[in-house]
Amino acid sequence: MSNKSDIYDVIVIGAGIEGSSTAYQLAKSGKNTLLLEQFPLPHSRGSSHGQSRITRKAYGPQEFYTNMMEESYRIQDELQAECGEQLFVNCGCLVFGPKGHPFVADTEKCLKRHGAPHEKFGVDEQRKRYPKLSLPSDYELVLDKTGGMLRADKMLQAFQRQFQRYGGTLRDGEPMLDLYPGDIVSIKTTKGVHRAKSVVLALGAWAAKFLPRIGVNVPLEPLKITVCYWEEKNGNHYSIENFPVFMSESGEGNNTIYGLPSEEYPGLVKICLHHGPKIDPDNRDAVDNEWVLDTIKMIIRTHFPTLEKEPSVVETCIYTNTPDTDFVLDVHPSWKNVVIAAGFSGHGFKLAPVVGKVLAQLATGQRPSYDMSHFKIDRFFKNKL
Ligand SMILES: Cc1cc2nc3c(=O)[nH]c(=O)nc-3n(C[C@H](O)[C@H](O)[C@H](O)COP(=O)(O)OP(=O)(O)OC[C@H]3O[C@@H](n4cnc5c(N)ncnc54)[C@H](O)[C@@H]3O)c2cc1C
C-alpha cells in the first residue's frame, strides 16, 4: 500500500489511552504519524473504555510515579484547554484501611514529601463527614485533595481528535498482522502494508499475545475486571458533590477495592475489586468470575450498608499486569526503533498523558525526561541471567 514517499515518521499501534496519548504528542510536535487500531472506534473490548477513572498524586513508596504525575496533570490541563471540555473533576481521593497499614501510611508520607494538600483523620471524623460509610473504629483515612475523577471516554476521544487536528492519520478497524523490522519498519495489516522510521506498540492486553512473536517474553497477565455499579437505597450521599473517589486495602488477601461517586449512571456508585481471573483478551467472558462478585458483595455489606446488595449494572474491563505491577516502557532489545508500551497493571490511565510524552521521546530518539530504570524489559530477566 505505502510507497517510498509515504513513509511515516512513526506508526503507533493501538488506540487505547496510551497509544492515543503518544500519537497526540507526536503529531503535536510535527511528526508524520499513523495511529492504527484493530477494532472500529469507539470500542469497549480493551482497557480504556468507560466514563471514569481515578487520578491522584500519592503513589506510596513508588516515588517515580508521583514525580511523573506532576507533568501528567499539566498535560491533562493542556488537553482540557485545547478541547474545551471538562476532563477532570477535583473531588479528592480518599484512602482508607486499618491503622498502620502501609497503603495508608505510605500515601500520607508521599503527600507530605511532595507538599500536596491532604488531610488525615480517624473514624470519628469520618462518621461526621461520610456518615453512610461503615468502617471499624481502628481504621484511618487520608484525603488526597489533588485527586479526583477523570472523564475517561472524553479524554480518550480528546486525544484522538486533537491528534487528527495536528495532522495525524487515524485508521481503525485495521489490525496489525505482522511487523518486519529494519531501518524502516513495515507493518502488515489486513488492508495493506504501512512503513515508518519507528513504531510504538501499545497493544494493551494483546501485547501478551504479540510480543512473544517478536522475541519479547515479558511476563504479562491479562485479567478480567468486573466493573459494578451499586444503587444507593435512600438519598444522595455518594454523589460526586458529597463523596470523593476512594481506595481501600483491608489487609487480607486480594481485597483491595476502589470506587467512584455516582456520576456516570445517576444514583449508582462504582465499586470494583482490584483483581480478577486470568483471561485471553479474545475470549474474555469465558471465565468464572463469581468469586469476584461474591467478594465485592461481602465488602459492600460490611462497609457500604446503605447500598443495594446486588449491583444494578455490571460491565467488563481488562487489566494487563506485570509481576511488579510497574509498566514496561522500553525499546525492543534488538530493534531500537521499535518501542514497547505494556503492562499498565490497572493504574495506567492517570499517567497516560506523561507516558505518551515519554513514548514519543523514545520513538524519536530523544532522551526521556524521566529515569526509565523501573520500566525496563530486562528487569524481569536480570536474576535469571
Ligand atoms: C476496570 C478498570 C478500572 C481502571 N481504573 C483505573 C483508574 O482508576 N486509574 C488509572 O490510572 N487506571 C485505571 N485503570 C487502568 C487503565 O485504564 C489502563 O492501564 C489503560 O487503559 C491501559 O491502556 P492501553 O492503551 O494500554 O490498553 P487498551 O485500552 O486496551 O488499548 C490497546 C489497544 O490496542 C489495540 N490493539 C491490540 N492489538 C492490536 C493490533 N494487532 N492491531 C491494532 N490494534 C491493536 C486494542 O484493540 C486496544 O484498543 C483501570 C482499568 C480497568 C480495566
How would you portray this structure in words?
- The chain has 385 residues and is of the alpha+beta class.
- The protein folds into two domains: 172 residues, FAD/NAD(P)-binding domain (3-Layer(bba) Sandwich); 160 residues, D-Amino Acid Oxidase, subunit A, domain 2 (D-Amino Acid Oxidase, Chain A, domain 2).
- It is 25% helix and 26% strand.
- It has eight helices and 19 strands.
- The strands form three sheets. Strands 1, 2, 9, 10, 11, 12, 18 and 19 form an eight-stranded mixed beta sheet that branches. The protein has an eight-stranded mixed beta sheet with strand order 6-7-5-14-15-16-13-17, with helices on both faces.
- Helix 1 crosses helix 8 and helix 2 crosses helix 5.
- The radius of gyration is 21 Å and the shape is globular.
- The chain starts with 7 loop residues before the first strand and ends in a 22-residue tail after the last helix.
- Flavin-adenine dinucleotide (FAD) binds next to helix 1, strand 3, strand 13 and strand 17.
Uncertain residue segments: none
**How far do the termini sit from each other?**
42 Å
Bound ligands, named by name, code or SMILES: flavin-adenine dinucleotide
CATH superfamily of the largest domain: FAD/NAD(P)-binding domain
Number of helices: 8
Task: Tell me the helix content.
Answer: 10-25%
Could you spell the SSE succession in H and E letters?
Answer: EHEEHEEHEHEEHEEEEHEEEEHEEEH
Shape: globular
Q: For this structure, what is the CATH class of the largest domain?
A: Alpha Beta
As for the CATH topology of the largest domain, it is FAD/NAD(P)-binding domain
Quickly give the CATH architecture of the largest domain: 3-Layer(bba) Sandwich
In this structure, how is the largest beta sheet organized?
A: 8 strands, mixed
What structural class do the secondary elements suggest? alpha+beta
| Strands, total number | 19
Number of domains: 2
Return Rg in Å: 21 Å
Share in β-strands: 25-35%
> What is the average per-residue confidence, as pLDDT, rounded to a whole number?
95
